[in-house]
Amino acid sequence: MINRRQVRETVLKAIYALQLGKDSTQHVADTIIKKAEFTKEKELRRFAEKLFFNTVEHEEELDEVISKHIKNWDIHRLALIDRLVLKMAICEFIYFEEIPTKVSINEAIEIAKRYSTAKSGRFINGILDAALTDLDESGRINKKGRGLIQQSLGN
Question: Which of 80, 150, 73, 85 is closest to 122 using CA atoms?
């Protein structure tokens, strides 16, 4: 059975291909996302496409959020996979009101551990915690439905 982590991993691969290649956003979506094994499941395909296109479309905004929380470090010096995982998770914070922020953080940590360095999990966690606090305080996190789960847990 396919789960959302596998979908996120496919989206990561698509964004990575887009960053390194010369192909259009649509071509990457068509060749990586639309040909993934989960595309027969409409909900998973829609999630993948929304995450991919939103992350790409809001790249500058997401980079600004990341840059604000990496102390004395240029965003372009971050490991590319770490930067892409951070962008995807922050995109989920802001643009996916139904996904609890804790889920986005946990998924990002696990994906970073699998695809990046041994220290990436802790690094990703620290940046996402700081970004979440900042985004929440500035009123940019709007969760509803399942996305409200964290408030009911006392956070």
Answer: 85
pTM: 0.91
Question: Distance (Å, rounded) from C-alpha 107 to C-alpha 5?
Answer: 7
Phi, psi (degrees; rounded to nearest 5) at 35: -100, 5
92-149 residue pLDDT tens: 999 999 999 999 999 999 999 999 998 999 999 999 999 999 999 999 998 877 666 5
Angle at CA of residue 117, ends 115 and 14, nearest 5°:
30
CA distance 88 to 66: 11
Nearest to 125 by CA among 144, 105, 107: 105
The residue count of the chain comes to 155
Nearest residue to 96 (alpha-carbon basis) of 144, 150, 151: 144
CB count within 10 Å of CB 26 equals: 10
Query: Which pair of tokens denotes residue 1?
Result: 């059975």
